[in-house]
Amino acid sequence: MSTTLPAVSRRTEILAGISTFLATMYIIVVNPAILSQAGLPFSGVLTATVLLSFFCSLMMGLYARNPIVVAPGMGLNAFFTFTAVKGMGIQPEVALGAVFWAGVLFLLLSVLNIRSAIVRAIPQPLRYAVSAGIGLFITLIGFENAKFIVANPATLVSIAHFNDPIVLTFIFGLLLTSILVVRDVPGAIIIGIVLTTVAAWPIGRLWGDASAVNFGQKTLVNFQSIWAAPDFSLLGKLDFMGSLSWSLWPVIFAFAFTDLFDSLSTFVGVAEAGGLQDADGNPHNLNRSLLTDAVSTTLAGLLGTSPGTAYIESAVGIAQGGRTGLTAIVAGCCFLPFLFLSPLLSVIPAIATAPALVLVGAFMMKPITRIAWGQLDDALPAFLALVLIPFSYSITQGLIWGFLSWTVIKVAVGKSREVSLGLWIVDVFCVLALTSGH
Asked: pTM score, two decimals?
C-alpha cells in the first residue's frame, strides 16, 4: 500500500474536522462533571480540558498529520475520580502528579519506540477485530446517547418506548442521515447533525427535556448566559514529588497501561477502517502519533485534568472524508472558543450526534470480512476482542483478552511461532494492566 494519503479537498477536510468536533465536544462538559466529584473546580477542569484538546489535536494534525482528535479520555477520568481519589483517598493534586508521571513514562516508551514495537506486534486478525469492535462500541454509545437503548434490570438492556420524543427525533435523524450518506451528499454527516439539532428544538421548548435543545429567550438576548471566563486555577497545581511515593506507583502504572491500550487500539482501529496505513500496514505516522498521545498525558497533569488520549469519535470525521492532519487542526481549533462560550454547548445535544455515531459503527465493520473465520485459532481471539469491546464497555478489555487468548490458543495448538517476541512483551503489559485493578 502506498504511503501517500488519498487526495481530498480542503473543504472535505474542514467539514470532517467540524464533524469530529461535534462528536467529541461533549467532553468539554462531561470531563469537568466527573473530575469535579474528585474535588477539582468544575470551571478549572473545563479550562484544562479545552486547552489540552486544542493544543494536542493541533499537534496531532501538524506534527503527526493524522485526522485524530486528542482529548481527556473517558474511563481514565472515572478512574481518576472514583478509584484514585475517592477509592484510595489520594489528594487530587497528588493524582494529577500521577497523571504527569504516567505521561513521562509514556514519553520514554515512545522515544525508545517501544510503543511502536507493540503496535507492530499486533496480529492482523486482531487489528481487523479491534476496528470492528470499536465500531460496535461507538454504535452502542450512539444508541445510549439517544436513549434508544436503555438499562433493563431483567435483560440488562432493552429498546426504549417509542412514545419518547427524544427517541422519535433520533430515529428521524438516523434515517435522514442514512439517506444523505447513501445518496453521497457532500457533508452528509454534518448536515444530519444540524438538521437533527433543529428537529430537537420542540423537545426542549415543549417538553423541557434538558438532554435536548432549549432555545430559551434568555439564551438569545442575554450575553451573560452564553459567556464564561476561563479559570486557570489548576494550572501547575499538581504535586510533583508527593506523587512519586512508592505507594502511588500502582496508580501511575494503571494510568499508563490503560491509556496505552486505549490509544493503541484507537490508532489501529481507526487506521484500519479509514485506510490510514503505511506500506507495512501500520497506522500512518505511527511514531509521531504515539509521541503526541504521550505529550497529551504529560500536559494533562500540568494543566489539571485526567490523561489525554486519541478519541475513537475521530472515526466520524474520517467517515466524512477526513484523511489528513487538517481534520484534526480544524477540530482542535473548534475547541478554543469554548474557553469563553462553554454554555453554548447545550445547542448541540447528544441526540444530534447519536445518528452519526451509529452510522460510523457501520462504516467500521468492513474489516471483519478479512478475518479467516474458518481458521478457529485466528477467529476465536479475534471474536473475543470484537465482542468484549462493546460488551465490557472498554476498548482496553477487548484488546487485552484478544492478546492473551491469541497467545494461549496458539501455544496450545503448537503454533507458538506465530506469537512474536513483541506480543509476549505485550502479554506482560496485559497481565500488569489486569492486576492493576483497572
From this structure: 0.73
